[in-house]
UniProtKB/TrEMBL annotation:
This is Phosphoglycerate mutase. The record marks 188 as: Transition state stabilizer. It catalyses: (2R)-3-phospho-glyceroyl phosphate = (2R)-2,3-bisphosphoglycerate + H(+); (2R)-2-phosphoglycerate = (2R)-3-phosphoglycerate. SUPFAM superfamilies: Phosphoglycerate mutase-like. Belongs to the phosphoglycerate mutase family. BPG-dependent PGAM subfamily. It comes from Astyanax mexicanus (Blind cave fish). It is an enzyme of class 5 (isomerase). Its EC number is 5.4.2.11, 5.4.2.4. InterPro entries: His_Pase_superF_clade-1 (IPR013078), His_PPase_superfam (IPR029033), PG/BPGM_mutase_AS (IPR001345), Phosphogly_mut1 (IPR005952). The active site is at 11 (tele-phosphohistidine intermediate), 89 (proton donor/acceptor).
Length: 263
């Protein structure tokens, strides 16, 4: 029997999503379309009568901006928002900034799919000579977080995303859910996928096929032990959702080029 509702939300389309580039820990604002996605998400949640007690985000602007826009559209701007790097997008290492379609042309679509979707495969680590290394690691959001800068990841598999996310989930978010609060986690494709894997017991193989489009809220109904009592539900127009999922899945194909699609 359902006792708790948890909402997961992959942020609206970001500027680099639109350019089909690996964004990862580089900070990006939402694109114009991403702003609309977040606003439409908030209106949908309001129309369905949902109310939040607490919102959790990463420390990346696209995640935070999405949460703000959702709450504004719901008329719930007063709801507290808490941020943590542990909800950040997966660290894509040396792939950061590169175009996915161009990487598929160079390395093959299967390799790019493994980098993007597999559970335990880690992309090549970012080096200090990388054009975005200083921008990431000299950013004050990381020099003041709960882990020394030298221990922050230089690359991550989805498994490693889950490993750094779980302590925050168990210690901070779970107690609030169990106290009866309705929680929204406004995060990223891979941090949300990692949580889904944990909550739904998805196998290492099957998680490859779990795709979340931008700006679509995912409803999880959980029992008292936070086990799902029914399949996850992506809220909204189902035909549009399936089309959005296909766009994300097509990102790593060599013929996509710089098409305006999101991840």
């Amino acid at each position: 029997m359902s006792k708790h509702k948890l909402f997961l939300l992959r942020h609206g389309e970001g500027a680099w999503n639109k350019e089909n580039r690996f964004c990862s820990w580089v900070d990006q604002k939402l694109s114009e379309n991403g702003v609309v996605e977040a606003q439409e998400c908030g209106r949908l949640l309001k129309e369905n009568g949902y109310k939040f007690d607490h919102v959790f985000t990463s420390i990346l602007s696209r995640s935070i901006q999405t949460a703000w826009l959702v709450l504004e559209a719901m008329g719930q701007e007063w709801v507290p928002v808490t941020k943590s790097w542990r909800l950040n997008e997966r660290h894509y290492g040396s792939l950061i900034g590169l175009n996915r379609a161009e990487m598929a042309q160079k390395h093959g679509e299967e390799q790019v799919k493994l980098w993007r979707r597999s559970y335990a495969i880690t992309p090549p680590p970012i080096e200090e000579s990388h054009p975005y290394f200083a921008e990431i690691y000299n950013d004050r959001r990381y020099t003041t977080c709960d882990v020394p800068k030298e221990k922050l990841p230089r690359t991550e598999s989805l498994k490693e995303v889950l490993d750094r996310l779980l302590p925050y989930w168990n210690d901070v978010i779970v107690p609030e859910i169990k106290s009866g609060q309705t929680i929204l986690i406004s995060a990223h494709g891979n941090s949300c996928r990692a949580l889904l894997k944990h909550l739904e017991g998805i196998s290492d193989t099957d998680i490859v096929n779990v795709t979340l489009p931008t700006g679509i809220p995912v409803l999880l109904e959980l029992d008292e032990n936070l086990h799902p009592v029914k399949p996850r539900e992506l809220l909204g127009d189902q035909a549009k959702i399936q089309a959005a999922i296909k766009k994300v899945e097509d990102q790593g194909k060599a013929n996509v080029g710089n098409a305006s699609i999101g991840k």
